[in-house]
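input
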Amino acid sequence: MQMNDIESTVRKILAEELGNNSVNGSSSKGDNGIFKNVDDAIAAAKEAEECYRDSSITLRNKVIDAIKEGFRPYIEKIAKDIYEETGMGTVEAKIAKLHNALYNTPGPEILQPEAETGDGGLVMYEYIPYGVIGAVGPSTNPAETVIANAIMMLAGGNTVYFGAHPGAKNITRWTIQKLNELVTSATGLHNLVVGVEEPTIESVQRMMKHPDIAMLAVTGGPAVVHQAMTSGKKAIGAGPGNPPAMVDATADIDLAAHNIIASASFDNDILCTAEKEVIAESSIKDELIQKMQKEGAYLITREQADKLTEMCIQDNGAPDRKFVGKDATYIMDQAGISYEGNPVEIICELPKEHPLVMTEMLMPILPIVSCPTFDDVLATAVEVEQGNHHTSSIHSENLKHINKAAHRMQCSIFVVNGPTYVGTGVADNGAHSGASALTIATPTGEGTTTAKSFTRRVRLNSPEGFSVRSWN
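output
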């Protein structure tokens, strides 16, 4: 028998073995991880997890590699499909976010054991899976969240039930199916990530209460995060933000204007980390506005800002989804505001108590609040951030100001002299700006999540050994 024949035979035997064990025991009832109801989907993920948790680290790496390499040819298609289905953001930004989710999300390599040795023997800490994780994703980052969450959670030996946002159900379903197809082709494993054909609020609620869901990871609005946190299960919740960008009198105004407009207009401001208002010292406010206009912002009057408020904020105080993630030109067209060129961001001078300042708008409208001193800038930033402790930024050359602001804001992400999208892992020209951060768990304290966030840290003690340094 030739070497190629031997390899083919071994692969066939392994595939048959995997097909006979519980990893794909429920695959016949689903369509590449998509099931008709919540119970069937969770049952399939549970069967898969009972075997996957015992698999080798090598196999987990194969799973992650299959996802990272397999999705590469589909990045542009996914970005276009997200835009077509949700109508939010821009295709270019979604391509950057997908690259970030796929190639900046660490896998099993960050789950290295920790060991201590001495006269008392060996103490070792390792990271083990929870089981089946119930995840919920937003419509603003649907496929990106599926991919990043899958890499993190599968790296730890978990399987995943993913509850799609109804507003992005088609691309989420396709992403889950393609992920399973890629993983099955590379490893023979089935149903590591599952979902349902028609996601609803009720299906998410049923998932959260299901006894086989060991942990919850929710990236969404305050209501669903609250539900997860009161479920009685271990929960990681990514809550709201209203990120202020502070600019003091020492800032490089050209750089600040460029970074703020580039970041706020990125994907039409739907990132929860994106600058939602600017708090500037009065002495540099006019120069900053002038430079922001050169970067593609369009300055509107207070009267026009009030008109946008009436149009874009609903009676319940929430932004109107008809305008979330829409182009600045579309929003101004709908409001009857004339403009020149093709502006990417709407800016306006407003007092700190204005609804456009105090509301997380998720659209390219950026209020500017001026304050007489840096201390006033910082106090106002704390006030408008409203205790979310999510994201904030500062543009300054004064180290004491930077340090004081970082200490006072206490945010999961704090960016200095840069665009806040770097806090999610996205960076210009492919530069590395840290691991991807698509689930930013401020309410539950994990901050920017990684594979470690979705594992249990356990301790092993061996008093009789092992320590090479000593013997007694």
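quick obs: Residues 6-28 have pLDDT under 50 and may be disordered.
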